[in-house]
Amino acid sequence: MEDKLARLKSAMKKHTFPDLKFTENHRHSIHTAIEKQDVSREDILIGIFRSLDEEKSGYQINESLYQKGIRKFENNEGSLYAVLHELEKEGWIQSFWETEERKLYSLDERAKKWLKKKESKSGSASARWRIAFEGGGTD
User: Fold this and answer.
1) 93-97 and 56-57: which strand pairing?
2) Where are the beta strands (DSSP E) in the chain?
3) Segment (H or E) for 66
4) Percent of the chain clearing pLDDT 70 (strictly above)
5) Minimal CA–CA distance to 62: which of 82, 42, 88?
6) 8-state DSSP, 71
7) CA distances from 90 to 29, 37, 83 (A)
8) pLDDT digits over 38-80, tens only?
9) Which 3 state secondary structure label does DSSP give 31?
């Protein structure tokens, strides 16, 4: 897989972006913009709840959020675990230890109902999240 990605990158440099100069300043400004990302609590809840279509570990939830553009926990995974613990105390999610080192999380019925209600509102942010998590688009 790494070889295929390296070949793709090489081909893109030669043919797709021959005049593009991506400097370290560009890279830094992009990372800064991502880090300053302001994500609402509702967006975080929707992202976490949508990622829990099946039992997942905190690491898997974090990866799912990252893939969908929520970078809030990228360099601070501990804060995600604090949020998960809070959601568990509030009765939104349940957890159990699969092994001594791996805790899995799942949605409680309350969270499923809340998510369904949010997603039923046409044009809502949660409806857009649903589309993003299902991998679709709305051209």
Assistant:
1) unpaired
2) 56-57, 93-97, 103-107
3) helix 58-67
4) 70
5) 82
6) -
7) 37, 26, 10
8) 677 888 889 999 999 899 999 999 999 888 888 888 778 888 9
9) helix
